[in-house]
Amino acid sequence: MYEIAKISSNAINNFEDIERLIKERYKGYGLFVISVPYTIKSDINKAIVMALNGQTESINVFKQIYEKLKVLGFYDEKKVLNSLNESIEIFELISKIKEIYPALEGQIYLSVEDMMLSALKKLLSLKMSSKKINLFNGYESGVIIDPISKYEIMINSSIQRGKIFIKNIEPDSVNLVGGLTALTTDKKVVRLPDGGSDIIATLLAVSAESQKLDLWTNVKGLMSADPLIVSDAKKIDILSYNEALEILSFNPSIFNPKAMEILKSKGVKLYVNYIKMPMQSGTEIRGEGVISSNVVKAVANLDGLAIFTIIGTGLRSLLPNLLNSFLLADLKFYTVTQNASGSEVNIIIDRKDVNKYRSLIEIQFMGEKIQDYRIIDNVCAVSIIGEGMKGTPGVASRLFSAVAKEKINIIMITQGSSELNIGFVINSEDCENAIKAVHKEFIQ
User: Fold this and answer.
1) Residue of 10, 64, 353, 380 with fewest CB within 10 Å of its CB?
2) Residue 336: which residues within 8 A CB-CB, separation 6 or more?
């Protein structure tokens, strides 16, 4: 059985870390899904935006990606150069005819995937000369996309294709799989959304009938709070799937929540580890957590939010249509609450989407049932998470007392029906003090 591992974007500071990980932890064989560093993704996005604005300088910005990876060397330079030149042609076309971009987006990301994997293979070939190293684009690993339903991954079909892919892998080899692209049922290469590499790794673990998936990051595991805010945040040794999903709802960049749902449904454990310490264990995520004297496992937070409050009569009957309109407009929302009388609906949204929400409400819904709305900008959500809170009295009172001692005003209270999560919304300027106070009360 092949070991399956995912190497996150934030863990790829240098390729030597990956080489040491493969040699020390995996003894020179396995299947490794490779993300692209955030800096490179940023360069791609910058180049594309410039091209869509008709700026021919976008080509030079894209070439910088090539130059960054060229320093590390290419295994198949001819293939990489051909891929690069194809992408440059696409950028030239985009600058003139931006309407062609959606159809060719996948080819641009495929080019970067080729460059990334080729450069990594070159280094591993030098350091591990006795090993066979194979490269696969994301779409070659079996992941298949449905082009009709907004490029949703076809889970069952992808698992069946993944089984064939794994069956044909050479034994005792290092296999690198890109995490940027997939294939549609009509054979079109497309870019996967953020977190797509997590789903590729998850589907491969399921296809291989593995009992676990390793995730390698730039931290020692999932932490009890953001270590940039709480300097003495603690590594969490064991979490249940449900606890992990609550944490990921605040920070999906750690691991795609959809991928976690798949792992949960298949009973595959996830291990979140630190790439610079390949022999040490991080956080184990499994079916059952561990309930200890600390009923709270983590303090999670999400900043950059706003509360959009809709005011009117008959909102209860309007709410389904309202939420459906948000989804159709690709507007993200975190929490929706309604007061007892049904005259107010509060929606927690990203601050950057305030104007989009305002426009949609005013154009589609202002009138008989919606009379007004108000916006509280610049807010932060803080929550405590843990299986141990179920049936434990006094948790909420301890939480709100800790915040009150800091003289912090709570704007809104939230709680999930699972009893794994109790939280509140406050002004962003109070966020750090609240997190420290709550962490000290329950964990420190």
Assistant:
1) 64
2) 319, 323, 345, 346, 347, 348
